[in-house]
Amino acid sequence: MGKYDAIDVNVYQSNIFHTKMLIKEIELQHYLFNTDVYKLTPKQRLEITMYINPDVALTAQKAFYSEKKQIPPIDSASSISGEFVMAYPPGIPILAPGERITEEMINYILYAKDKGCVMTGLKTRL
After folding, report:
1. Which domains, and CATH codes, for the chain?
2. Full-model pTM
């Protein structure tokens, strides 16, 4: 019997996932070091910075405790979020309760999902 006769597949897959994300981070740092960010398009800057300036329409408390209805993310532009929506990794909220949902946010949610992020807070499928 060897040192590793049995492995936890979930731990192994998690390690692979985190290693891939680290490699992407290293590639991004290399890209940023060699790129003039002021020459990038807004879409390219969004992909690099992954920051969207929120439009807060209600307090988080009021939005969270208000009556809600489920809307597919693709049809939710200009609605107000009643829940947190997060992408893991990195686990930072894309949307918080009370923020107005924009096309930019929807595009980022679709982008993150396409890149393999696990989405939390979405009640309907993309």
Report:
1. 9-120 (3.90.105.10)
2. 0.59
